[in-house]
Design a protein that fits this description.
420 residues, alpha/beta, 6-stranded parallel sheet, 15 helices, 14 strands, 40% helix
């Protein structure tokens, strides 16, 4: 790593320490507007290039957006669309060590379609790093994720860079369609059974072999309030007492904040069978962790997809999940324990989510009863996981996901708008 690469994260941390998220968003908007004034997108800049896709994103990232980018790459490959990948480092604390797509990475953008897999708040920084002639002269598609029914007004300035927007779920599509006249297409994920390694077993993670283990996970660098880990912990504590010695809870708290660490340490003193894991894991290690527990719990307030839940199902781990938002597009009561929820207004800002936006308040009492039932009835748990895995294999395949992407790209190939 050179000095410039080392300096970027330091400067980002300094900026975060002395500014508010709202201030940083304003700076990004100004930078974006400056860019589009200097380098406007006009039809005369269109150039003839070979048909195909330049996939731009965090392809090496060991985090949700990185995994999403790799899924999109896998779908493009399955659809046999010509494509290349341009990796954009996040330059943050999260690991970016996944090299599974390096054979497709290039430092140029040779094709006529840019598929920019970056969320709106990243666009302003990214465009200055890309070849401006290609951004101006190509057909630009955004691939976005979002979690609430209300898409942020403060990100609307980015719409002008794109010709259309792709999203993995109808839940996100409905949110974005309220804010733009640009076409918004649902390009669903394909999910394969995640890769695991037998060496990453319970002993590797310091977990006992003789307990029925529930698990939840969250990342302190993200908005943990949306993942609602404390809600899942409360439900577990309602379901089981410290005297229930046959059951345990694994809390995977990546980048846990200091107050979370204090809360979890206090909880562990009361509940000896709560196991807190704070190390950063490779994707293979994380997959293996999910595979060696019995039940994954997500009492989320909102999801743009719910990738960990889908992967847990394919790994044969039972799932307890909030019955609201995008995860309901691939989950129902036959494949998971779906927890009813009340949709409520946010009473205060929780950036990037705003006061007056909406998310779910899952019923922790019902979640507790479901957790207790899964613990007490291993046969039911086994039936549930087998049904869920078959359902996911049939409905979340790469082959099924490739059809809408292939069809849309073929439509674009025939349209005059891609010609100079």
């Amino acid at each position: 790593m050179n000095l410039q690469q080392e300096t970027v994260p330091v400067m980002k941390r300094l900026a975060k320490a002395i500014t508010t998220p709202e201030t940083r968003d304003t700076w990004k908007r100004w930078a974006f507007q400056l860019y589009t004034r200097i380098y406007p997108r006009k039809s005369q800049y269109r150039q003839r290039r070979p048909f195909g896709v330049n996939l731009i994103g965090h392809i090496r990232g060991d985090f949700g957006l990185g995994e999403s980018c790799r899924i999109v790459a896998g779908i493009l490959k399955t659809a046999q669309i010509p494509f290349t990948i341009y990796n954009l480092p996040l330059n943050g604390p999260a690991s970016e060590g996944d090299l599974s797509w390096t054979d497709y990475e290039e430092n140029v953008l040779p094709y006529n379609i840019n598929l920019i897999h970056l969320n709106p708040n990243e666009i302003a920084n990214a465009i200055w790093k890309l070849d401006r002639s290609v951004l101006r002269s190509s057909y630009n598609i955004a691939y976005w994720l979002w979690e609430l029914p209300e898409f942020p007004d403060e990100w609307a300035y980015t719409f002008c860079l794109f010709d259309e927007i792709w999203v993995p779920t109808e839940f996100i599509a409905q949110s974005i369609r309220k804010k733009t006249q640009k076409p918004v297409y649902v390009m669903p994920y394909g999910i394969r059974t995640p890769q695991t390694n037998a060496q990453f077993d319970r002993a590797y993670f310091g977990l006992p072999e003789n307990l029925t283990l529930f698990m939840l996970s969250y990342d302190g660098n993200s908005v943990s309030e949306r993942k609602n880990p404390k809600g899942a912990i409360r439900a577990y504590c309602k379901a089981f007492s410290p005297k229930d010695t046959g059951v345990g809870l694994v809390v995977k708290a990546t980048h846990a904040q200091k107050e979370d660490e204090v809360f979890l340490e206090t909880l562990k003193r009361e509940y000896p069978n709560i196991f807190v894991l704070t190390d950063s894991y490779t994707k293979e290690e994380f997959n293996s962790l999910i595979a060696c527990v019995d039940v994954y719990v997500s009492l989320h307030r909102a999801e743009g997809f719910g990738l960990v839940m889908a992967e847990a199902i394919l790994l044969g781990t039972a799932v307890v999940a909030t019955d609201w938002s995008a995860n309901t597009e691939f989950m129902n009561g036959t494949v998971a324990c779906m927890v009813p929820a009340e949709v409520v207004e946010l009473e205060q800002d929780c950036f990037p989510y705003r006061k007056g936006n909406h998310w779910a308040n899952p019923d922790e009492d019902i979640a507790a009863r479901m957790m207790r039932q899964l613990y007490g009835d291993p046969a039911k748990r086994k039936d549930l996981t087998e049904t869920a895995r078959r359902f996911a294999q049939e409905n979340l395949s790469y082959e099924k996901a490739a059809h809408p992407m292939e069809n849309r790209l073929e439509e674009l190939k025939k349209e005059e708008k891609l010609l100079p």
